[in-house]
Design goal:
Shape of chain A: globular
Largest sheet of chain A: 11 strands, mixed
Number of strands of chain A: 21
Number of helices of chain B: 13
Order of helices and strands of chain B: HHHHHHHHHHHHH
Radius of gyration of chain A: 28 Å
Distance between the termini of chain A: 77 Å
Structural class of chain B: mainly alpha
Structural class of chain A: alpha+beta
Helix content of chain B: over 70%
Largest interface: A-B, 81 and 84 residues
Strand content of chain A: 15-25%
Number of helices of chain A: 15
Oligomer: heterodimer
Chain lengths: 542, 317
């Protein structure tokens, strides 16, 4: 019989101590068991870093919104699609246009007709043989749906000559034609099976079963917002020529490439450091120092695109006066803005014209060089007074999804204040930002906008007439039309000077600088990089 | 009882209706365009308009709403613009990891918090009590993403015991699946554990101080029996409330944890859908989350009656 006692509820008793110990032991056992399970199973290292499986795990922030190679303008789409789809021509390591699905090609005397003889024995990944019908249907679809082709190939048409020969007829000669046919970045001229073209028409490809190309890798799996897997295609018929750039032989050695989509930057960097992921196309800007001395990774930089200030063309904005636009261009100091944007002097360039420094060999001009980056605040103040700026509020629109553009915008606002401009920052996520930028031009005065890198100046988003800003009007349209029909690169370069002069005079935008990204790969990977992309078909574990 | 459940279920309809109107209005008033997202910034207005038409976005908003609501009544929540599947399929696929995560978080929380909360109350003001109080304070004040990153650094990067991110279904591979869910589960369950531990401690203390406990003790009832037979059950009502409400929040509020650990759950689905303006998915997920929350509350009300006959539904006068 238990002895009654008058202990307080808190008073220890032998049996309750035992009970407490039992509960604590059970809990500790549970925790230990969980960690033991983790520890025991840790050898598998799920998700990546496993050379023995001949798989590479790449990590990148977001999945493409569409995997239609002819429509999507997501750069990650190009990264995933370029080993799956092929084009009639491509570029070698010297950026010369060379045949890929074509065996040969030639142009007529006035460069308005191009004839392509197709390679024999090329099959699609569904087993069907590629012929002229597939190519003509694909290329005509590309002319209709690709934002680049719509302008550069206006009035062009593809026709079948015979089963192995196709012809492109253009409205006018242009040095751009072959350049565009050879690009595999975004909205590129991928050759698709006729059946797919007939099925999807001009709408984006949605069904993953329709992602069928002729390349060395096939589309294997798409787990929404998690990963896309491409697999080596054993029946790929390689070109019998040395590999160079994107041309020549393609020797797929990796069994799989897994593109993992991880939104959180810390998770991506930790995953890369832990070996869960083997490569990335995009290290967060602020993690360069963290990775620079990592012995397990090889890093390099590449051009990601310019950051620009675009002025609103709404009549109520103080920047409807060109003098005020020129004032801001005179007053801003680009280095601090770019440092804030990308965090390191190694990760940006300042370029005085509209194309990137990496394209200097093709697109260069002296126009605007002398007055570039004056950072003269006093002169800016005088010009603003001359332009009639009365201290009214100025809204700087920015988006939060691109950290480099957002960080740049923060410094731009401070510099505007130093010029006596009553500037405030108005930042949104991409969807809202994009609509405000396009449609609500009376709600902002300046926008900090990250542009992409483009093959030719006419494709930079600022030159699209429907965009906000002073990019429309007959003078610019005439220049663009003249540029697009320039028969040679030299002719185009001369017109590029004129385009730059137009920018200097009209000042629809102010170029701040070009941001670079950092790509990284496991040191044990042989992973070639060419023109902003990994070359997956020649990659292998060492 | 049955009438009570039916009445409660019927009362959900107006709530769901209001939620559907608010959500539909909000997302259509928010700037952003799914067609522009698919076609890219440089797409022509004509191409965007054509895609709008094929998505049904060119119809008046009221018609779009009626079409959607009409579908909801037949179980058709529409198709995702981006995922190449129906909204019901998307919710079904993404609910699995979220529910698994919530269960693990709740298991971690309950198995740690209830025993430690009880022990802390039993040995009030002792070393264990002070330790439990300190840990609960930390658990409640440290944001889950900080805890997540700290665990990633320790268990993912330094010790390499657990994967930094990703998800494997435990039903396909139990060991690997649990490894992917352990850190997120702890990160998600920490606040809940702290809340439950504090509630358990307070509730057990209340009961231990009750007169009937003193009376039982004076009758010679053992401390073990006092605790397990007379205290815990009577102290469990507030704990049950917290567990129920927390389970709802764990299922519906795991977005941050899912994003950090890259778990393809409902939270991640919703965040991505909002970012892409995938209207049918946003509407469907929020409606589903609302329903889960309401049903969880109903379930908790019913459980009250089982635990405590005094509040049994249909018995009260």
């Amino acid at each position: 019989m238990p002895t009654p006692h008058a202990s307080t509820p808190g008073a220890p008793a032998r049996h309750s101590r035992r009970t407490g110990r039992r509960v604590a032991s059970a809990t500790a056992l549970l925790a230990a068991g969980a960690l033991l399970l983790a520890g025991c199973a840790s050898g598998g290292d799920s998700g990546g870093g496993d050379a023995s499986k001949n798989i590479v795990n790449l990590v990148t922030p977001a999945q493409p919104e569409s995997m239609d190679p002819q429509i999507s303008t997501d750069s990650i789409m190009g990264e995933i699609a370029s080993p799956i789809f092929e084009t009639l021509v491509t570029t070698d390591e010297n950026l010369q246009v060379t045949p890929m699905l074509a065996e040969s090609f030639e142009a007529n005397a006035d460069n308005t007709e191009y004839t392509f003889v197709l390679r024999e024995g090329v099959t699609f990944q569904d087993g069907s043989e590629m012929d002229a019908d597939d190519v003509v249907a694909s290329m005509n679809r590309w002319l209709r749906v690709s934002v680049a082709a719509v302008d550069a190939f206006a009035g062009a048409e593809w026709t079948k000559v015979d089963d192995r020969t196709v012809k492109l007829t253009t409205a006018s000669p242009s040095f751009l034609h072959l350049l565009y046919l050879a690009q595999v970045g975004t909205a590129f001229p991928a050759v698709l099976p006729l059946e797919v073209v007939e099925k999807v028409g001009d709408a984006p490809i949605q069904d993953v079963e329709d992602i069928i190309g002729t390349g060395p890798y096939t589309f294997a799996e798409w787990e929404a917002d998690q990963k896309i897997v491409i697999e080596k295609w054993d029946d790929y018929q390689s070109v019998d020529a040395p590999s160079s750039g994107r041309s020549g032989a393609k020797d797929a050695q990796l069994d799989q490439v897994v593109f993992n989509f991880v939104a959180d930057a810390s998770t991506r960097t930790l995953g890369l450091q832990s070996g869960q992921y083997d490569a990335t196309t995009e290290l967060p800007f602020d993690s360069l120092d963290q990775f620079q001395d990592d012995p397990n990774l090889v890093l390099d930089t590449y051009m990601v695109g310019p950051i620009n200030l675009v002025y609103s063309d709404d009549p109520s904005s103080p920047f409807s006066n060109v003098i005020n636009r020129q004032a801001i261009n005179t007053g801003i100091d680009r280095d601090p803005i770019m440092l804030a944007a990308v965090g390191s002097e190694d990760l940006y360039d300042l370029v005085h014209h509209n194309m990137t420094l990496g394209q200097k060999a093709i697109w260069d001009t002296e126009v605007g060089k002398a007055d570039f980056n004056q950072a003269d605040v006093d002169a800016a103040k005088e010009m603003l007074a001359e332009g009639g700026y009365d201290g009214s509020p100025v809204v700087v629109l920015a988006n939060k999804d691109y950290s480099e553009a957002y960080n740049a915008a923060v410094v731009v606002v401070e510099q505007l204040k130093a010029m006596g401009v009553e500037a405030t920052l108005d930042a949104y996520e991409w969807g809202a930002f994009s609509e405000k930028y396009r449609e609500n031009r009376d709600e902002w005065d300046l926008v900090v906008f990250p542009f992409g890198t483009e093959l030719d100046p006419t494709q930079t988003i600022g030159f699209l007439p429907t965009r906000a800003g002073y990019f429309d009007g007959p003078e610019l349209q005439a220049l663009l039309a003249k540029f697009r029909s320039a028969p040679t690169q030299a002719d185009a370069s001369a017109i590029y000077d004129e385009m730059q002069e137009w920018i200097e005079e009209t000042r629809p935008m102010t170029r701040i600088g070009d941001a670079h990204n950092v790509y990284a790969a496991n040191k044990d990977l042989e992973l070639p990089w060419f023109e902003g992309r990994f070359v997956w078909w020649n990659a292998h574990w060492k | 009882m049955l009438r009570f459940i039916l009445r409660r279920l019927l009362s959900l309809i107006p709530v769901l209706f209001v939620v559907s109107v608010v959500i539909f209005s909000l997302i259509h008033l928010t700037p952003g365009d799914p067609a522009r997202r698919i076609l890219g910034e440089k797409a022509s207005d004509e191409a965007v308009a054509a895609l709008h038409a094929s998505m049904g976005l060119d119809a008046p908003v009221v018609i779009q709403y009626l079409n959607w609501v009409g579908g909801v009544f037949t179980g058709n929540l529409g198709n995702s613009y981006f995922l190449n599947k129906t909204v019901v399929e998307a919710i079904g696929d993404n609910a699995v990891p979220t529910i698994q995560l919530a269960i693990i978080a709740m298991l971690v929380a309950v198995l740690l918090a209830v025993p430690f909360g009880t022990i802390a109350a039993r040995y009030r003001d002792g070393a264990i009590d002070r330790s439990v109080t300190a840990f609960t304070l930390i658990g409640m004040t440290v944001p889950s993403f900080v805890l997540a990153l700290a665990m990633m650094l320790i268990f993912g990067l330094s010790l390499r015991w657990l994967p930094i991110s990703g998800y494997i279904n435990p039903f396909e591979d139990l060991g690997e699946g649990l490894r992917t869910l352990l850190m997120p589960g702890i990160a998600l369950g920490a606040i809940t554990a702290a809340l439950i531990a504090r509630t358990t401690r307070a509730s057990v203390l209340d009961v231990l101080n009750a007169d009937y406990i003193d009376a039982a003790r004076s009758r010679g009832v053992t401390e073990k029996r006092l605790l397990f037979a007379h205290t815990i059950k009577n102290a469990s009502l507030p704990v049950l409330t917290i567990v129920g409400l927390s389970l709802g929040s764990l299922v519906t509020g795991a977005a941050v944890t899912e994003t950090i650990f890259n778990i393809p759950g409902l939270g991640q689905l919703l965040i991505n859908a909002i970012s892409r303006r995938d209207y049918p998915v946003i509407q469907g997920v929020i409606l589903f989350i609302t329903l889960i929350y309401l049903l969880t509350n109903l379930l908790i009300d019913l459980l009250y009656g089982i635990v405590d006959p005094r509040v049994r539904v249909g018995k009260a006068r």
